[in-house]
Amino acid sequence: MGNKKFLARLAKELPDWVARGWVQAGTERAILGHVAAQRSGTPLLTYAFSILGVLLFGSGIITYFAANWGEIPKLIKLAILFGSMWLVYGAAWHALRNNHAPLLGQALLLLGAVLFGANIMLIAQVYHIDSHFPNGVLLWSLGALVGAYLVRSQPMLVIAIVLGWLWTTLESEFFASRNHAHWPFLLLWAGFLPVIYQHRFRAGLHLAMVALLWWSVYVFGMYGLIGDTGSRLYLVQFYFLAYLSVFLIGMLFATFGQLADFAHTVQRYGIFAALVNAYALTSPSMQSGQWGHLWGEKTVRAVADSGYVAITFTALAVMVGLALWHTRRTGGGARPVYLKWGEALIGALTLLILANLFLAGVSGGWVAIAFNLLFFAGMLWLIYAGMHSDNRFLVNLAFVFFGLTLLTRYFDTFWTLLNRSYFFMLGGLLLIAGGYVLERKRRQITASIGARHEEGSA
Amino acid sequence: MNLGLRIVIIVVLQTAALLVMVGMKQYTLSTGAPIVLKTEPIDPRSLFSGDYVRLNYSISRLPLDKLAGDREFVRGDTIYVSLRREGEYWQALSLNHALPMVAEGQIVIKGRVEFINQRAFPRPGALAEPGKSIDVKYGVENYYVPEGEGRALERPKPGEAVSIRLVVDRNGNAAIKAVLVNGVERYVERLF
Q: How large is the ipTM?
């Protein structure tokens, strides 16, 4: 909690504590003064300026040497490159030992990581190395990752994740073989996790989850560019199950003391990504294979090939395994009825996904209707589940997807049936009225959750 | 483990990674056998590093039908190209997935398949012919020059021919040893 919020809360609570005799009368002012005088957490502005300064300084070094490079002998060049890196790490050690200047120390560690990357580029230049250039970015990311692990540096982890992200983007953009996702990224991504866990890096976890979503989008964009009929549909189905598993991993985290800190973040990214994919599955164009036309695939759906069948069943097995594990960890006793409804919905959706692997031809439209019915039922269930578990995030997310899907179906259905002017007028009215009703309902529910939270904490 | 030791480990690991980069090229430069390739430089400018000349060799695009050895390649494959001297320059003779036995008078250079073309191109600028060809990179396609000098190599004066002397080690790795204009050294790479 931020210092200001804590102070306001304390000022509100103190009179009650005095009245109950927990705090001696007349000391409120001293307590509040003492708390106000304490600085909260990290001085963010100082930190931000240090990091920005380091990045600017690093860029300056690179461009200075680049401009004067030709005149410097090779051995001197190498001495400058290695010497500057060693010097910066030495300065970081000096700043960090005995907690002498921790912020400066972290900034210098980041500068060390930046110089390591600059050295990779400059050595490639000195020796005219023109091999597979994403490898240089990977090497840089690994160097920063090792640093982040050894000296507990979140800035180094951030740069490692961003570089990992850049690496997979370069590989996918410039070197992707058709029908081959850039799977090695997942190995690097897995390497981020021990560092995040070991040092409790929350910002690192957010960034790692965003990087994973980004990679998923890239695979979607690159996967199956030739003739692999229906591949994107089956990939989206796989994603849905996989991200539902990520959500369940978040649920499991909540039952382990050491991992509980990460539970909410993992759950939120997992459920968000699962809903994005479920939303994509409600599209009639995707189900009928017409989407493929945009990507150079055939426009008529075919049965999934054995690879997609295998990964879908694997994801399903993982999901079921995680769900059973979670049930065991939470005791598995009497459970609210709504949870059983949720399981039934996910079960029905899973059966539809499995059946969908083996459907072909023009059956897409009917499958889309089934997906839509289950999706809308799922959103209503999610709102109910969010209310029951006092989870405002779930409620808000469910409302957003409910509204978005409703709007999309309106476009899908009436775009060709109605005169354009009627289409827009009716659409506008529905948007205004529907938006008002949905927003009002959402506010009521989240306010009631907020009120329950207040009561609980009072 | 104390902080100092942790930072020392970072420095040692990062330095070792950079030294491997340096060492591999130094090994090739000091032990490799020289070959000369005909080239047509093109000159993009690097944001961070002044000028560099992009080198396009006569062995950068290889017609599969006209060369011996393996025929099936996909993008990203490692390829070993056997070269033989023909006059002043070295030309491709055969293609292999693995390092072949090196015959007398030949040198094998290692590359990576970048593209598969459904047409063959007999020489740069010529019309396409039936047959497949592959574009190959050997890791020696960039040559950094002092700022402002890239243009001179990109657009040589009439009568000037630019060629590159490479050295190729026994594993097929190549490094640029010198840039030649009309057979005379314009830039030479020394060990240190």
A: 0.82
